């Protein structure tokens, strides 16, 4: 935790030191449409596949680790049991080809707006890009979670704010993003998730009763 806090402090210092310029989502949208700024999306595929900025370049800094080696499977199980089942967040691994792919696709003198879902991974990416020679770097504070519809030219099946949610919490509608949406959309929206919650409670109850009956049968 201390290492992560120190890294976050170091990443944020890039903005204070002027190495990275701060933009709001709306400013980033204007810059991408009206000038030669390029948008670099460093999110994992699990988020990118739900929503992305039109014409953005996708090179993940981290992506889901789908390896089947015994140690990786153990890590994946641990990640799932420690909250991945609830949040839908998979085990991630660093993309060793990140810098190589960026330098292949984006010239060093380009104006690059680096985006992720919440803002931290994009700052980590900015640090790597600055050290590699990029000097025209821009960052969206709060990431795409902070973007309202219309701020950026979105493509994909979900709003930007929903791209970072998943797992059982999304299925039941218990994320902050869905609660806010429910307050705007009304009872029809919330009824869907209420029905899902009731269905899960009934299923859990049926499984419990079934287990009790099976236990009684086995005793006899």
UniProtKB/TrEMBL annotation:
**InterPro entries hit by this protein:** Rhodanese-like_dom, Rhodanese-like_dom_sf, STR11-like
Where the record annotates domain Rhodanese, the positions are: 33-156
Query: Which ranges does the record mark as transmembrane?
Result: 187-211
Note the Pfam families from the entry.
Rhodanese (PF00581)
Q: Which SUPFAM superfamilies match?
A: Rhodanese/Cell cycle control phosphatase (SSF52821)
Keyword Secreted part of the UniProt annotation: no
Cross-referenced PROSITE patterns, in alphabetical order? RHODANESE_3
| Keyword Transmembrane in record | yes
Keyword entries, A-Z: Membrane, Transmembrane, Transmembrane helix
UniProt cross-references to PANTHER family, sorted A to Z: RHODANESE-LIKE DOMAIN-CONTAINING PROTEIN 11, CHLOROPLASTIC
Q: What protein name does the entry list?
A: Rhodanese domain-containing protein
Report the source organism: Ceratopteris richardii (Triangle waterfern)
């Amino acid at each position: 935790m201390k290492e992560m806090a120190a890294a976050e402090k170091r990443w944020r210092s890039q903005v204070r030191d002027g190495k990275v310029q701060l933009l709001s989502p709306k400013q980033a949208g204007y810059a991408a449409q009206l000038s030669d700024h390029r948008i670099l999306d460093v999110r994992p595929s699990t988020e990118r596949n739900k929503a992305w900025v039109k014409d953005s370049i996708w090179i993940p800094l981290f992506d889901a680790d789908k390896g089947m080696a015994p140690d990786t499977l153990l890590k994946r199980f641990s990640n799932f049991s420690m909250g991945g089942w609830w949040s839908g967040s998979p085990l991630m691994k660093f993309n060793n080809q990140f810098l190589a792919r960026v330098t292949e696709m984006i010239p060093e003198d380009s104006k690059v707006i680096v985006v992720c879902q919440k803002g931290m991974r994009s700052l980590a990416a900015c640090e790597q890009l600055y050290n590699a020679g990029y000097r025209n770097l821009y960052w969206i504070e709060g990431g795409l979670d902070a973007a309202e519809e219309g701020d950026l030219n979105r493509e994909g099946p979900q709003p930007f704010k929903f791209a970072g949610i998943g797992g059982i919490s999304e299925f039941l509608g218990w994320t902050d993003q869905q609660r806010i949406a429910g307050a705007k959309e009304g009872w029809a929206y919330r009824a869907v998730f209420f029905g899902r919650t009731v269905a899960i409670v009934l299923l859990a109850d049926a499984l419990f009763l079934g287990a009790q009956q099976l236990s009684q049968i086995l005793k006899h």
